[in-house]
């Protein structure tokens, strides 16, 4: 009989400890994720309150501009020096159109999100 009560007491203590452990883990998790700082390229200056830094869209625009120039250049080169095996619908010149589209998008993003002096 004494062994039975001690087992019940051990189970009750284990359940109470598990509940307390779950509560502590939940509180720690909430504290950790509530204070999580999101990384950003643009930060606010604490003294003046002005935003400073370079927008990520400026770099995306620069990449699109470079890719557009490379695509357009490759299309112009292969139009003058055709390969021996022709690809279907090559007369539509998709490299030309994609290159122009990428250049236009890259120029827009690079100009619109360029870094400016305050």
Question: Can you walk through the features of this model?
Answer:
The chain is mainly alpha-helical and 118 residues long. 65% of the residues lie in helices and 3% in strands. It has a domain at 53-112. It has a two-stranded antiparallel ribbon. A hairpin with a 6-residue loop joins strand 1 (43-44) and strand 2 (51-52). The longest helix has 33 residues, at 2-34. The radius of gyration is 31 Å and the shape is elongated. The termini are far apart. The relative contact order is 0.12. The mean pLDDT is 80.
Gyration radius from CA atoms, angstroms:
31 Å
Order of secondary-structure elements? HEEHH
Instruction: Tell me the total number of β-strands.
Output: 2
Task: Estimate what percentage of residues fall within beta strands.
Answer: under 5%
Side-by-side strand order of the widest sheet: 1-2
Bin the helical content.
55-70%
Total helices: the number is: 3
Look at the structure and give the mean pLDDT.
80
Largest sheet: 2 strands, antiparallel
Apparent shape: elongated
Structural class, by secondary structure, is: mainly alpha
Sequence stretches where pLDDT stays below 50 over 5 or more residues? none
User: How far apart are the first and last residues' alpha carbons, in Å?
Assistant: 81 Å
């Amino acid at each position: 009989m004494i062994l039975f009560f001690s087992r019940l007491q051990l189970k009750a203590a284990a359940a109470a400890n598990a509940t307390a452990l779950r509560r502590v883990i939940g509180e720690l998790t909430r504290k950790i994720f509530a204070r999580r700082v999101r990384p950003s390229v643009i930060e606010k200056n604490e003294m003046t309150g002005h935003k400073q830094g370079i927008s990520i869209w400026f770099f995306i625009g620069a990449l699109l501009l470079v890719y557009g120039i490379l695509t357009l250049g490759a299309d112009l080169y292969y139009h003058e020096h055709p390969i021996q095996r022709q690809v279907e619908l090559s007369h539509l010149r998709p490299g030309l159109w994609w290159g122009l589209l990428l250049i236009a998008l890259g120029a827009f993003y690079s100009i619109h999100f360029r870094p400016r002096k305050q």
